[in-house]
């Protein structure tokens, strides 16, 4: 069964460093998302991506964040200068799209720890 | 803006029993989708069940069923014959119905423990 894969599963980084979280969405999906979940809290939307551009973003997704689909298969989230409060689980998701309401398939997440 | 509220932070149920998790939401939209996602200790988000707001019939998936009350903006999840593998966080989520896809709005989750 096709699945969304994320790497790495866990990343530890120094405050102020740049990190890139990687995702391989399901191959025929058209919509891609990043969500984050701070430990013990709810899952929050960061950004959605369609047709090679950002389609929607939340207030959390400020200038420190960027997304890219560099080669038609990977979908990356970059945090330019990490802060302690960026420590969270980051989930990538993809969906087929079309009529709307189609299932979003989630990856297993990347646990980011900023020290 | 849409909001999703799950009023039960934690619940427990005996194995083989039935449990109902509550979810209410607030929206001015008439067409939308509602979902229940399961997050086991592995942390992966897994879709449990999906409901289209324009359908009156409640969705069912094997041991999982929903009670969708559109007027009351309520969307509860019933798990029948609970199994130890059902132990997880359960998140209720809302999605607007527009062309293309829109982000999910999640509730804070209910931690369900199934006890042997």
Looking at this protein, list some descriptive labels.
heterodimer, A: 115 residues, mainly beta, seven-stranded mixed sheet, four-stranded antiparallel sheet, 0% helix, globular, B: 116 residues, six-stranded mixed sheet, 12 strands
How would you summarize what this structure contains?
The complex is a heterodimer of chains A (115) and B (116). In chain A, strands 2, 4, 5, 6, 9, 10 and 11 form a 7-stranded mixed β-sheet that branches. Chain A has a 4-stranded antiparallel β-sheet with strand order 1-3-8-7, with no helix packed on it.
Model description:
- The complex is a heterodimer of chains A (115) and B (116).
- Chain A is an all-beta fold and 115 residues long.
- Chain A is 0% helix and 50% strand.
- Chain A is built from no helices and eleven strands.
- In chain A, strands 2, 4, 5, 6, 9, 10 and 11 form a seven-stranded mixed beta sheet that branches.
- Chain B is an all-beta fold and 116 residues long.
- Chain B is built from no helices and twelve strands.
- In chain B, the strands form three sheets. In chain B, strands 2, 5, 6, 10, 11 and 12 form a six-stranded mixed beta sheet that branches.
- Chain B is globular and about 45 Å long.
- The model of chain B has no long low-confidence stretch (mean pLDDT 93).
- The A-B interface holds A 31, 33, 35, 41-45, 48, 50, 55-56, 58, 89, 91, 93, 95, 97-109, 111 and B 32-33, 35, 37, 42-47, 50, 52, 91, 95-109.
